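Quick check before the chapter quiz. The format below is the same one you will see on the exam, so make sure you can read both the input and the output lines.
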Amino acid sequence: MCQILVLIVLFFGMHATAQDRQLSPKARELTHALAALRTSPDDSAAQERYLKTFPHDYREFLNLFDLDHELYDGHDFVDALPLAGKGHEAELGKLLVGLAKDAHYDSDAPNYLQQVTAVYAGQHPKTFAELLKQLPLQKQTQLITFLADVEAHNSYPEYQAITHYVLRKQGQSAKSNLTIRAGRKPQCSVPGKRGYRRSGIDSES
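Here is the expected output.
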């Protein structure tokens, strides 16, 4: 019996090692950073390492997490971003806005990115609005369109929160950017997925 258990442990250990060798350097680095973050979720160094290792370019994001790519579908990796962002609000905001400004809605990894970005915007509307303001107008429009690409409009408060905040801070000229929806009637709604944890929207004023 003991010999069988030893063989099972060796088999799975060898399988994990083989999988690790098959990953690209970037995928391996990110996988190790996620493991370190899960082991020490409150460690600032592990949080910073994860945020720095995570893709900062949307094309690289898809190259890792899109269908038929090595870390598909990316749920665990994207879902870990809020954990890594504890105490690193500005860095997380820059990362999310940098990805979302080039993103187009799709299932799986882009969907997870949309959800996490919307929750961040609802929790930190001031920071999000400042980051949004730094983008060219075309990229502002693309980012808001990406966030607004949902069906259950009235079920999510985050998008309405950021809409209200940006309009109040940047003036009525921002309204058209915040109500644009790709191929749909303009809405003031929030992206997300049924059952996804909603965040508070009053953490910044």
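If your answer matched, good. Confidence is low (pLDDT under 50) at residues 5-19, 180-203.
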